[in-house]
Design a protein that fits this description.
Elements lengths: L7 E5 L3 H11 L4 E5 L2 H10 L4 E5 L7 H10 L8 E5 L4 H10 L3 E4 L4 H57 L3 H19 L3 H4 L4 H10 L12 H4 L7 H7 L2 H16 L6 H9 L20 H16 L10 H10 L7 H9 L1 H10 L7 H9 L1
Parallel strand pairs: 1-2, 1-3, 3-4, 4-5
Helix pairs in contact: 1-5, 2-3, 6-8, 6-13, 6-15, 6-16, 11-12, 12-13, 13-14, 16-17
């Protein structure tokens, strides 16, 4: 912290005798600067900002009131304390001084001990405020760095968990990248609707984007002969496959309990449990319908189905973007939330571009998507 003895006091007075008195009183304690009128004072301040200003009120040309007003309107000088020097003792004059931003008055003729005391008091206050401001900046920087660490930890944790699912199912990698981007496009589109404007904040959309890769984490609990079966599942096998929604939710819920109610896994849990629910109530595992299905689940339902349609699966070839568009349009209000389907239909080209960008290397999704582009 800056020492008081290193502080600069700017004395502004048009009377040489007054300047001499103030210089004699303060020169052994502080660095001093002198100006004889308002204009030269402002020039001095522009070159080097003082720590405090002793400012005469009645001066030729620009008055002390005017100088102080100019200083307080400039962010660079607004915090410099100004003590008025004046022979005026009436209440109106003092009130006007405080209104334009002065912190104190020193009356003429000067009392040396009073001058020393007032200057020291206000410089000490200024140094304390500067120290507090510096400490606040340090604290804010620490909070920022800690927040970044926590955010990175969350992202890393989610990526690690998502990789587990990818190792079990080789087709999951591109699917994860594509669906998280689909989810972001849908959320940004929904935010334009008044009912979602306050819900889908930047923070929530980012959490959607970060958490979306965990929607299929429950597939870790599905047997290989079902998960990797090169063909259509039997009804019994399909029933077992359906358990992945509950398995993923249970695993994430266990972790979330340790982190508290506002855990970053909150949306991951919703993606996992509810992405297979349908708007008309015919989905699983809870057979919810309409807006009883959490928003994250309704969004992922469409993102997941679109990607499944345009991707090769053991039981089907990839559909073109155009065919997927027609199927989702037909399922609006049945499988999908109508508003989410409308957002998809309006932004469908963005989906196609995402599919092209994150196409699986060993799949012909890129070719199928390109086909519809022509």
């Amino acid at each position: 912290m800056k020492k008081l003895s290193d502080c600069t006091v700017l004395i502004v007075d048009d009377t040489e005798a007054n300047i001499d008195i103030l210089v004699d009183a303060l020169e052994n304690d502080y660095e001093l600067s002198v100006a004889i009128d308002g204009a030269s004072a402002l020039e001095n301040i522009e070159i080097e900002k003082p720590d405090i200003i002793l400012l005469d009120i009645m001066m030729p040309g620009m008055s002390g009131y005017e100088v102080c007003s100019i200083l307080k309107k400039d962010r660079a000088t607004a915090e410099i304390p100004v003590i008025f020097l004046t022979a005026m003792t009436d209440v109106d004059s003092k009130t006007k001084g405080f209104e334009v931003g002065a912190v104190d008055y020193i009356t003429k003729p000067f009392e040396i001990m009073e001058v020393k005391a007032r200057v020291q008091t206000h410089l000490s206050l200024r140094m304390a405020r500067l120290e507090l401001s510096m400490q606040n900046e340090i604290l804010e920087e620490k909070v920022f760095m800690r927040t970044r660490e926590l955010s990175l930890t969350q992202e890393t944790t989610i990526e690690a968990l998502a990789c587990l699912a990818e190792y079990r199912d080789p087709t999951t990698g591109g699917h994860i990248k594509r669906t998280r981007n689909y989810v972001k496009v849908i959320a940004e589109g929904l935010r334009k609707l008044p009912k979602y404007a306050d819900i889908l904040t930047d923070e929530v959309i980012n959490q959607f984007y970060q958490s979306a890769p965990l929607h299929d984490i429950g597939k870790i609990g599905i047997r290989d002969e079902i998960l990797l079966k090169p063909g259509k599942l039997t009804p019994e096998e399909y029933e077992e496959m359906k358990n992945h929604a509950q398995i993923g939710y249970n695993a994430l819920r266990t972790a979330s309990h340790r982190l508290g109610e506002n855990s970053f896994l909150r949306y991951a849990m919703e993606f996992s449990r509810y992405h297979q629910e349908k708007w008309d109530g015919s989905g699983y595992p809870d057979h919810l319908s309409g807006e009883d299905i959490p928003l994250a689940g309704r969004i992922m339902a469409l993102a997941d189905v679109y990607d499944a349609l345009i991707s090769r699966r053991p039981y089907k070839p990839p559909f073109t973007h155009e065919v997927a568009l027609a199927i989702i349009s037909e399922e609006r209000g049945r499988h999908f939330d109508p508003e989410i389907a409308d957002v998809f239909l309006e932004a469908n080209e963005k989906f196609r571009q995402i599919a092209l960008k994150f196409a699986d290397e060993d799949a012909d999704l890129l070719a199928s998507a390109d086909t519809c582009a022509g």
